[in-house]
């Protein structure tokens, strides 16, 4: 959050589970980890992962320093223990640890420092894109999430977020505010996937 927004109360309904959403709302690192896990699994599963991980680590939040220094095999076990935290628990455990190691090296373990006092949207996208596991699309979606639901809105943030920054859109997790919008985002993703398959078939014919 930006300095002016630190005291505002944020309510999220991304994980569709109160305790998991409460953690996402108050913990910048949990939000980043949720975004990292958001691939090849349902969005609710991905964003409930940080809360499940915190519980398995014996706390109520995630700490980048602790995760960065964790024994890799033991950390992977936290992900693979049933119910697994992801469809690909081993590889995602490694990615989460790499993300935290990067945050420790570049931001002293403070995830919010990635966007604190950022001068503009382009710089924020650049910082997010530099995070391990964050490609251009993931960086833009998280940038949109920061702007739409966390109040982090540096100059040009919508433009930097690309189509995900559009007001009133239902393209990504940035637009989920409850069950109805979740269904709309899911429908959009399904339609986009079908359109991509159709385009591929047309090219191959």
Automatic annotation (TrEMBL):
Coiled coil: none annotated. It comes from the Bacteria. Residues 33-181 form the HhH-GPD domain. InterPro entries: DNA_glycosylase, HhH-GPD_base_excis, HhH-GPD_domain. NCBIfam families: HhH-GPD-type base excision DNA repair protein. This is HhH-GPD-type base excision DNA repair protein.
């Amino acid at each position: 959050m930006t300095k002016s927004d630190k005291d505002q109360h944020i309510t999220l309904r991304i994980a569709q589970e109160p305790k998991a959403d409460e953690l996402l709302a108050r913990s910048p690192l949990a939000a980043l980890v949720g975004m990292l896990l958001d691939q090849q699994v349902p969005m609710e599963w991905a964003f409930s992962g940080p809360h499940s991980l915190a519980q398995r680590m014996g706390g109520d939040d995630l700490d980048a320093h602790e995760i960065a220094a964790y024994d890799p095999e033991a950390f992977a076990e936290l992900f693979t223990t049933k119910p697994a935290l992801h469809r690909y628990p081993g590889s995602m455990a490694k990615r989460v640890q790499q993300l935290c190691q990067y945050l420790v090296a570049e931001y002293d373990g403070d995830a919010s420092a990635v966007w604190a006092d950022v001068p503009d949207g382009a710089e924020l996208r650049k910082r997010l894109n530099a995070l391990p596991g964050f490609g251009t699309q993931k960086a833009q979606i998280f940038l949109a999430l920061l702007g739409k639901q966390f109040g982090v809105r540096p100059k040009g943030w919508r433009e930097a977020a690309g189509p995900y920054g559009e007001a009133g859109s239902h393209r990504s997790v940035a637009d989920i505010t409850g069950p109805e919008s979740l269904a709309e985002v899911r429908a959009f993703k399904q339609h986009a996937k079908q359109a991509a398959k159709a385009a591929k078939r047309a090219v191959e014919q």
